[in-house]
Design goal:
Main location: cytoplasm
Structural class: alpha/beta
Strand order of the largest sheet: 3-2-1-4-5-6-7-8
Largest sheet: 8 strands, mixed
Protein name: Pyrroline-5-carboxylate reductase
Organism: Sulfobacillus harzensis
Keywords: Amino-acid biosynthesis, Cytoplasm, NADP, Oxidoreductase, Proline biosynthesis
Pathway: Amino-acid biosynthesis; L-proline biosynthesis; L-proline from L-glutamate 5-semialdehyde: step 1/1
Number of helices: 11
CATH topology of the largest domain: Rossmann fold
Shape: elongated
Strand content: 15-25%
Low-confidence stretches: none
Order of helices and strands: EHEHEEHEHEEHEHHHHHH
Helix content: 40-55%
CATH class of the largest domain: Alpha Beta
């Protein structure tokens, strides 16, 4: 049985933990926390049993996952390195931190850079992965763990920052859209709880159609829904007048640029 230690106990760590606990896996998952700030996220019994504040907890781990903020990476690596087993696989979902930068701080272990998102909690993350220094068998072991979060795509690391903006940050765009739709429904007298369920299903359906009919331009589907002079046309006119399509593109670019900035050596 593998032993996984997550270093960091925040929202992403908790989402990954939930993803691994959806179905049985051949692994034990422990956590090294910096403080009790996120204790409220976790099952109390699990926190008391499996969460430690000592970096030495990573000793003996087969896999170490660095679920910390970018600004805390250098300190975190310095604290845990003396205790890492030579064969330990180090996995980093930390935005902006390249594997070369991690190696520059003396980490010679097999490295995996990943970009999951919070949807891992329900097995619906679109997770990206890039490998360095792993055997084929070790890569497959890691992929099996990552598939617990949802789909996994192996990419070149150079694409990680752009896809961080699209996929790592992406759920926030959708949650903002859902929040706006729910608020719009309330203005029309619709029940918020029911609207949340219905518009969530609508987004799932639209996403499935976009994926399953990938040969069809999305603009064609927009035209199919937007009958001339109809309700959808009225909606789209308001969004276009507000610059919504361009605003989304600018937001993605800003997120990618921020990912690059987070990885800059200071």
């Amino acid at each position: 049985m593998q032993r996984i230690v997550m270093v960091g106990s925040g929202h992403l760590a908790h989402a990954l933990w939930e993803g691994w606990n959806r179905t049985p896996i051949d692994a034990v998952v422990d956590v090294v926390a910096r403080s009790t700030a996120h204790r409220h996220l976790w099952d109390g019994a699990y926190w008391d049993r499996a969460v430690s504040f000592e970096p030495a907890r990573v000793a003996g781990a087969d896999v170490v996952v660095l679920t910390v903020k970018p600004k805390d990476m250098e300190e975190t690596l310095a604290r845990i390195q003396p205790y890492l087993d030579e064969s330990a696989i180090v996995i980093s979902p930390v935005a902006g931190w390249t594997m070369d930068r991690i190696r520059s701080l003396g980490v010679g272990h097999p490295l995996v850079r990943i970009m999951p998102n919070v949807c891992a909690a329900v097995g619906a993350s679109t997770t990206l992965a890039a490998f360095s220094g792993l055997t084929a068998e070790a890569e497959e072991r890691v992929l099996a763990l990552l598939r617990q979060f949802g789909t996994v795509t192996v990419i070149e690391e150079s694409l990680m920052d752009p896809y961080t903006a699209l996929l790592g940050s992406g759920p926030a765009y959708i949650f903002l859209l859902l929040e706006a739709l729910i608020a719009g429904g309330e203005k029309l007298g619709a029940d918020a709880e029911r609207t949340r369920d219905l518009v969530s299903r609508m987004v799932e359906g639209a996403a499935r159609l976009a994926r399953d009919r990938s040969d069809d331009p999305l603009s064609d589907w927009i035209s199919m829904v937007a009958s001339p002079g109809g309700t959808t046309e009225a909606l789209l006119q308001v969004l276009e007048q507000g610059g919504w399509p361009t605003m989304i593109q600018d937001a993605v670019v800003a997120a990618s640029q921020r990912a690059e900035q987070l990885g800059e050596v200071r």
